[in-house]
Structures are given as C-alpha cells and as structure tokens.
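User: I'm preparing a small set of examples for a lab meeting where we compare how different chains pack in three dimensions. I only have the primary sequence for this one, and I'd like the structure in token form so I can line it up with the others. Please keep the answer compact; I'll paste it straight into my notes.
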Amino acid sequence: MNYDSFSHGQVVSKVWLCEQLEPFVTDNSNVLIIGSWYNILGFMMLTRNKNLYQHILGIDLTKNSTEIADKLNDAWDIEGKLSNNIADAQYYDYTGFDLVINCSCEHMDNDWLDKINHGTLVCIQSSDVVDPNEPWFITNPNSTLNEFSEKYSLKTVLFEGTLPIKYSTGFSYNRFMKIGIK
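Assistant: Understood. Below is the structure token output for the 182-residue chain.
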C-alpha cells in the first residue's frame, strides 16, 4: 500500500473538493470517481454526507488499488453505497452517472471527458506539478489554472479555483479544481 494516499496534500485537496462540490450535488446522486486509487475520496464523501449519494463507484487501472479500496471502504460496501472496479477511464461507459469526478487527470489523456454525457455534473482536479518521475508520474501537466481550465472545457462553470499547498520545508504546489456541467 502506498500511504501517500493519506498525505497532507491528498487529504486537504479532497476535503476542499467535498466542501466546494456538495452544494451542487443533487440528492441520491450516482457518482463515478475515475482514477480513484484507494478511493479515499468516496470514503470522505460518504462520511461527510452519506444521504446525499445513492452510490459511488471508483474505477482504477490496477487490481492492487481496487483491492485496497475495497478493504478501506468495506463498511460503505456493506451498506451498498460504494464499490470499486478495475477499468480504464478512456474506454469506460459513463451512462447513468449524475456526477463524474477525476482527481487524476494529470495521469491520463483527455479522451475521458469526451465520453461524459452532456448535462452531467463534472468535478476535475489537477496540480501545477510537472514531474514525470516517481512519485509524481505526471503525463498530462497543467502549469497554470488558466491552462487547466482551457484544457477541460465545460458548458457551465459553477466553481473554479486554486488551493495552495505549502510545507515548512519550502516545497509547495497549487491544486486546481473546476466544477461544472458538461
């Protein structure tokens, strides 16, 4: 297990996402989280407001990630609120989801966005980190909020912003987020 999924930057970014996204989520939403890793986000969303979501599905490319996600989210799986599957976002069928979330877009091509049905609520996060090496593995970087925003076009933008992540060691980066209707 990669404990970086619980790192300060990961957790703070997901809390920020929940705070900004919740006002736009309709009751009993079916949610798809692509590139979900261990699906800590699904866990946080349900912990904050389980009645807001009918079901949250996390998809990731690796069996290891989905197996760990299943263990971490066992309580929500028992309630039928959350599940995890191995799948590639580039080829996935996005039909039937009220909300699609991608906090891993810097790790994949942009084809996934074209597959989402018009009228769907979408939340996207990325950062200004451009390092293709371990541990970042960035393949689709976004240097600025403007570059990020232009790359991920939505019909209606409900929220757009930057969350600075700063550490006492001097290391820092910016997390970008866009919420809107496709």
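A couple of notes for your slides: Residues 38 and 71 are 9 Å apart (CA to CA). The mean pLDDT is 93.

User: Perfect, thanks.
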